[in-house]
From TrEMBL:
One Gene Ontology cellular component: cytoplasm
Gene: dtd
Alphabetical GO biological process terms: D-amino acid catabolic process
GO molecular function, one term: Gly-tRNA(Ala) deacylase activity
SUPFAM superfamilies (UniProt xref): DTD-like
Alphabetized Pfam families for the sequence: Tyr_Deacylase
Function field: An aminoacyl-tRNA editing enzyme that deacylates mischarged D-aminoacyl-tRNAs. Also deacylates mischarged glycyl-tRNA(Ala), protecting cells against glycine mischarging by AlaRS. Acts via tRNA-based rather than protein-based catalysis; rejects L-amino acids rather than detecting D-amino acids in the active site. By recycling D-aminoacyl-tRNA to D-amino acids and free tRNA molecules, this enzyme counteracts the toxicity associated with the formation of D-aminoacyl-tRNA entities in vivo and helps enforce protein L-homochirality.
Protein name: D-aminoacyl-tRNA deacylase
Amino acid sequence: MIAVIQRVTEASVTIDHKVKSAIGKGLMILVGIVEDDRPEDIEWLSRKVINMRLFPDSEGVMNRSLADIDGEILVVSQFTLHASTKKGNRPSYIKAAKPDSAIPLYEAFKSQIEKDLGKPIGSGEFGADMKVALVNDGPVTIIIDTKDKK
């Protein structure tokens, strides 16, 4: 599972010209799932995201977590994070999990984040044509791959 985490002042997802979800200060998370991702990857990634110190303290040092600032989260599925660009000019998405296995993992990740954060989160819709808008704060962008835990 790959997550691209962006610290934002605001973010939203629009589907069919209707805003599905919007957040204020917090984290926008794009998540890509592969076939061999497991529930333990979800639990690890959720804890990592919520406890990662990406927000400034009174000294301006990134020393505060999402939980510390009572921030919000917006999660969007993005299979293109697993694009292979080694051959030719057209990316291959063969590594990305198929919907029958990816959707349950995506839903489980959203549920785990809500449980760990202790409040509802915003999300996109798996497989939908989404328009994602955000204001990256910093900019701060972190990429986490659950295959690189050690």
